[in-house]
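Bench notes, afternoon.
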Amino acid sequence: MTPTHSQPNSNASPYAPEPLLRVTGLCKRFVQRRNFSRSKFTVNAFEDVHLQLCRGETLALVGESGAGKSTLARCIALLERPTQGNIALDGADLLTLDKKRLFAIRRRIQLIFQDPASALNPQLTACEIIAEPLAIQKVGTKKQRIERALQLMDQVGLETAAAQKRPFEFSGGQRQRLAIARALALEPDVLILDESLSALDALNRDLILQVLVDLQAARSLAYLYVSHDLRLVSQFADEVVVMYQGRIVELKKTRELFARPAHFHTRELLATVHSVESTLLERSA
């Protein structure tokens, strides 16, 4: 199926907001070697991806495991280089920038991983973890970086008295808040959340979701939210992209997607949600 959103819209409103992030024709292929052989083969992680994201909006990226969601997120965050295509931020093609300009613009796109325990340096304190991106980008003095780190801890609901604690001294929910604070240190325009709420219990998930909603409202942040949890997506996202076998098969406003799913894989994902909800209702009856 060729997604309809990949075609230019000649009837688009002249008053529609200009996308902050635009991804066009993005592909990622891995060349692998066969076991006990010199022959190689190519694996397509994803191909021909087109999407766009405006300030203050949340775009959810959903699909089965192995659909290419996390690899796409890493490519957009410039942690991996795509095989072909374009990634434009405010109209600037990031894949054509020289190293100096790319280093400067990296601060505008930050990624928050699913497992903060593995993403945070266990040898650093909470304050040092948050301030580290500022030091790398040579922002401010050491004193200013510490002040900024303490401000961010407060913004994400962490006690500043815990600034000298190390990651293992925090709970899972607190570590995720710490990861969010670190990602916010450089005042990015785009936050990519790669299953960042999926490992949390319901209480922590709801608390952190509210933190993200409040931060987005205050800063007009754009979120690309990678998830398999459609129940959470229904609360959080403005639009939903459905990936299947490395391709985008559907992109709609969240309410429309849930009401009128067009692709069979979208219907399968929604059926799974309804099945889980029915089971929970039966158990609580």
